[in-house]
Amino acid sequence: MGFSYAEWAGVFYPTGMKPGEYLEHYARPFNAVELDTTFHAVPPEDRVKRWADVTPDDFRFCVKTPRVVTHDLPIEQGVGAMAHFLGAMAGLGAKLAVVLLQFPPSFTDREIGKLDHFLSELPGEVDFSVEFRHRSWNTDATSQMLRKHGVAWVSADYVGEDARIVPTADFLYVRWIGRHGQFPRMNCEELDTTERLNWWSGQIALATQDPAIKTVWGFFNNDYAGYSVGTCNRFKEIVGLPAAAPGAVQGRLF
User: Fold this and answer.
1) Quick one: CA dihedral 117, 217, 215, 58, positive or negative?
2) DSSP the chain
3) 193 near 230, Cβ under 8 Å?
4) Measured between alpha carbons, how far is residue 182 from residues 39, 222, 224, 230, 236 in Å?
5) Where are the domains of the chain?
6) What is the pLDDT of residue 68?
7) How many CB atoms are located within 10 Å of the residue 42 CB?
8) How far apart are CA 187 and CA 199, in angstroms?
9) Is 3.30.70.1350 the CATH classification of the domain at 6-252?
10) Whether residue 248 has pLDDT greater than 60
11) Which of 177, 155, 176, 158 lies closest to 166, judged by CA?
12) Backbone dihedral angles phi then psi of residue 154, each to the nearest 5 degrees
């Protein structure tokens, strides 16, 4: 989740590398990134174009919907703001993979009718995923609504929260979050999450037995174990994917 961490300098990014070169370097070992910066503001056109220009043809961006849509406005008033955001993201072209809508814990299933209508207004040529953070959404009605629109129900791993995979689209979207602020630095793994990642590997394997599932998107936060590059590589090894990261010195405390 993200790539522009100053604490990765000298660990993942070569010492002396300019921040403007980070994305190009990141895109060598990894083929996708989830952008959190879009949550705070719609990026200007030239920045979006640069993201597309410095990454390989097969690189993909998953982008977080601006907070004005998911947090600030009532969801029924967010259609115009969402259209503006999608217009800006069109600059990524085929590199735009999934648009993530992450709702706050205060957003409950009392809004299901309004969300249903909102999702019906979204363009069909773009893939969307939704993350709910209130337990009231854990119902069959939620999964039925998302399936109707072909929107993925995000599987998120927070500390102390139940985690599960409920397929509602032709792709899965998994976010390994952890607890915010639990580590003083973000340049080495401070927790051994191997057991938990093995569990996730099994859950994903079960879900992808369904031939309708074509893609699995997965992103790690630094807060999950202390250093998301290391944790991501650890999981790639578990599922049999190459985990080499050019220029990386993967710090571990265990």
Assistant:
1) positive
2) --S--GGGBTTTBPTT--GGGHHHHHTTT-SEEEESHHHHSPPPHHHHHHHHHTS-TT-EEEEEPPHIIIIIS-GGG-HHHHHHHHHHHGGGGGGEEEEEEE--TT--GGGHHHHHHHHHTS-TTSEEEEE--SGGG-SHHHHHHHHHHT-EE-EEE-TTS-------SSEEEEEE---TT--S-SSEE-S--HHHHHHHHHHHHHHTTSTT--EEEEEE-HHHHS-HHHHHHHHHHHTT-----TT---EE--
3) no
4) 22, 10, 9, 17, 24
5) 6-252
6) 97
7) 17
8) 25
9) no
10) no
11) 155
12) -65, 135
Tokens of residue 98, six digits: 């999934």
Count of all residues that appear for the chain in the document? 254
Average pLDDT over residues 211-234: 96
Q: Quick one: tokens of 180?
A: 């915010």
Residue 162 pLDDT = 79
pLDDT tens column, 47-71:
999 999 999 999 999 999 999 999 9
Average pLDDT, the chain: 94
pLDDT beyond 80 at 161: no
Whole-structure pTM over 0.90, yes or no? yes
Structure confidence by residue, pLDDT tens digits, 164-207: 999 999 999 999 999 988 899 999 999 999 999 999 999 999 99
Q: With cut-offs at 50, 70 and 90, classify the pLDDT of residue 251.
A: low
| C-alpha span between 147 and 14 (Å, rounded) | 44
Pick from 89, 49, 52: nearest CA to 69: 89
What pairs with residue 61 in β-bridges? 33, 96
> How many Å apart are CA 199 and CA 204, to the nearest integer?
9
